[in-house]
């Protein structure tokens, strides 16, 4: 995250109003609720993990044991069990 100079962004009236509350400090202004992305959406990891979990469920339906899936995906027994028995 880079810093943006308030003089360059805010209209003068708004900047003066903000300075009544805080001046010379750093202020974080968050994105609006609807504009925030969920964890992993930018990097693609969310999509990757959803696909991996679907592959694990499909393999389990085809007859692979949880132990075999643990070895194949390098996950713990509890992690694979949680994925396999989730309601997705």
Individual helix count: 5
Our measurement of the CA-to-CA distance between the termini, rounded to an integer number of angstroms, reads 35 Å
Low-confidence stretches: none
Proportion of helical residues: 40-55%
Beta strand count: 0
Major sheet, described briefly?
none
Rg value: 24 Å
Mean pLDDT over all positions: 90
Q: Supply the number of structural domains.
A: 1
What form results from the Cα inertia axes?
Answer: rod-shaped
Query: What is the structural class?
Result: mainly alpha
Order of helices and strands: HHHHH
Strand content is: under 5%
InterPro entries: c-mor_Regulatory_Protein (IPR052411), Homeodomain-like_sf (IPR009057), YraL-like (IPR049739)
Protein name: Mor transcription activator domain-containing protein
Can you tell me about this structure?
This protein has 88 residues and is mainly α. The chain has one domain (6-84). Helices cover 53% and strands 0% of the residues. It contains five helices and no strands. Helix 4 (66-73) crosses helix 5 (77-84). The chain is rod-shaped and about 70 Å long. The protein starts with 5 loop residues before the first helix and ends with a helix. The model has no long low-confidence stretch (mean pLDDT 90). This is Mor transcription activator domain-containing protein. InterPro entries: c-mor_Regulatory_Protein, Homeodomain-like_sf, YraL-like. It comes from Clostridium thermosuccinogenes.
């Amino acid at each position: 995250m880079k810093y943006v100079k308030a003089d360059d962004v805010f209209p003068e009236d708004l900047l003066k109003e903000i300075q009544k509350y805080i001046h010379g400090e750093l202020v974080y202004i968050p994105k609006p609720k609807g504009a925030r992305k969920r964890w992993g959406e930018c990097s693609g990891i969310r999509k990757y993990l959803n696909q991996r979990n679907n592959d694990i469920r499909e393999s389990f339906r085809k007859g692979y044991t949880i132990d075999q899936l643990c070895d194949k995906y390098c996950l713990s027994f509890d992690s694979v069990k949680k994925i396999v028995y989730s309601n997705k």
